[in-house]
Amino acid sequence: MAVSERLDTTEPTQPNNPRSPATLTPPSFLHLLIERNVDVQFSKLGSDVNRHLSEGEASLYETTFFMGLRNERRNRQRTPDERLQNLTTANTSLLDESVKNNELGIRNKLPSGAEVSLSYKAVGKANNLIPQTSPPYDTEYNSSLNLLLKQPLLRNAGRSTTETDRRIAELEYQVSLQQLAQQTSKTSMDGLTLYWQLFRAQETRQLRTQALAHTQDLLKDTQARVNAGKLASTAVLELQGTLLSRKAELSRSQQAYYEAHSKVLSTLNFASDNSATIALKVPLSEPGALRLPASPPSEAALQLWAPYQIAQLKQQQAQTRFNFAQNQTKPMVDLILGYSSTGYSNLPQDARSYAAHGSYPDWYMGINFEIPLGGNQKAKNQMLAQRTRLQQAELEIEAIRIAFTNDLLVRKTDLQNALHITDLSLKEIDLRKTLVDNEQRRIDLGTGSLGTLTQKRADLVEAQQRLIENRVRYEIALAAWQYAQGTLLSDHGIVVTRDAASPT
C-alpha cells in the first residue's frame, strides 16, 4: 500500500448531508468516515507539517546572496608618527576623511561539506591628504574580486554528513505518512466495529418488532379461539404476559439502537439530532456463503504492517544519527583556499578593470587543525548514545515482528471460529423455522399446543438473535484480520496516495 499525506478512494461516497437519511454499506461508510473523521484529518495535517519541514531541509544547497554597505566619516588629529611617515603631508595636522566600503557576492554549500563564496569588494576613500600625494585627484579606490573555499577533510566532510538533517527530515516525513496510513486503518477498524454494532442494534430492533407483531397476531387468533370455545381463557392470559415481555425487549433494543446510532454519528463528526439518521442494509447470508479470505505469506503481510514500516524508518533515522555522531569524533581539519584579484586607482572604473582582468592576483592556501585536548568526550558520548538508540530501534523491529506473527495467527483462528459458528447459526435457524411451521400446522389441525408454539417461536427469535451476534462477530473478526494484514483499506477500495487530494 503506497502511502502519503492524502487519501484517495475509488468508490463514490453516499451523500454526507447529516440531515438526510443515508443507507451505508461497509465500503461507503469507510469512505465517509475517512473524509470526515477528526483523527484522520489531524493525522493528515501532521503529515503536511513534516512535508513542509522536509521541503525546507531540501533547500540545503540554496545559493545565498549577501551585500554590505558601509559609509564612514571621520575628522580627527593626526599623530606625530602619521605625520612623519609622509613628509609631503607632515604639515597637515588634521585628517578629514570619508570612506565608502561596499561588498556583494554569493555563497553556497557543496555536497562535500565545503563552503564556497564569490564576492566583489570596493573601497572608495576621499580625504584632505590625497591631493598632496596624488594631484589632481582627491580620491582613491581599491577593488577586489574574491574567491574563498573552505573544505572539511575529516569532521563534517562528505555528502552523508552534510545531508544528515535533510535525510532525517525526509525519514520523518515518511514516518508521518506511515502514521497517516496507520491512523486511517485504525480509525477504519474502530469505525467498522461501531458500524457492525449499529447493524446489530438495528437488526435486533427489527427482530423484536417482528416478534411483538407475531405475538399480537397470535393473541388475536387465541382470543378468537377462546370466544369460539376451542381454548381455555387462561391461554389469553399467558399470551398477554408474553406480549408484555416482548414490549420490554423492544424498549431495550430501541435504547441500544439509539446509543449505537449516536456513536456512529459522533465518529462521522455529525451532530446528533432527530433529523440525522443513518440506516444500514446488510443481508444475512445463506449457510456456506461466507468464506475465509485467502491470506498472503506472513512476511508479505508484515511488510504491509504500518507499525513495522515505522520501526524500520526509525531504525534508518537512528543509523543516520549514529553515522553523524561518529563523524563528529574525528579531528577538525579544514583546507582553506583563497584567491583575490585586486585593483587600485584614483578612478573607480580603473580599479574595477584591474580587478576584473586579474592583473594583480593575490592567493593563499592553508590548513586549520583543531582537536580537544581531553579526547573529545562530548562527541564520543553522543556517539555511544546514538549507538544505544540504534540498538533500541533494532530491538523494536524484532519485537514488532514477533508480536505481529503471533497476533496474525490469533486473528486467523478467531476468524475461522467465527465463520464456523455463523454457518451453524444459519443451519439452526432453518431447523427452528421448520419446527415452528410444523407446530403451527398441528394447531391448525387442532392437535397442537399453544404453549409449545409460543416456546418454539421464542426459540426461533433467540436463534435469530444469536445469528445476528455471530454475524457481527464474524464481520469484526474479518475486519481485524484485514487490519492485521494491512489490507483493510485496499479491500474496501481505499488507497492512501501522495497525489490525490480527498475521497472522490
The run of helices and strands is EEHHEHEEHEHHHEHHEHEHHHE
Strand content: 15-25%
Percent range for helical residues? 55-70%
Main sheet record: 6 strands, antiparallel
Query: Which consecutive residue ranges, at least 5 long each, have pLDDT under 50?
Result: 1-21, 499-504
Shape: elongated
Mean pLDDT over all positions: 85
Q: Kindly report how far apart the N and C termini lie.
A: 18 Å
Strand order of the largest sheet: 3-4-5-6-8-9
Number of helices: 13
Radius of gyration: 42 Å
Describe this structure in words.
This protein is of the alpha+beta class and 504 residues long. It is built from 13 helices and ten strands. The protein has helices spanning 26-36, 38-57, 80-85, 130-133, 159-162, 164-227, 234-267, 298-304, 306-327, 348-357, 377-444, 450-485, 488-491, and strands at residues 6-9, 22-24, 64-77, 94-109, 115-127, 139-152, 278-280, 332-345, 360-370, 494-497. It has a six-stranded antiparallel sheet with strand order 3-4-5-6-8-9. A hairpin with a 5-residue loop joins strand 4 (94-109) and strand 5. Helix 9 packs antiparallel against helix 11. The protein is elongated and about 150 Å long.
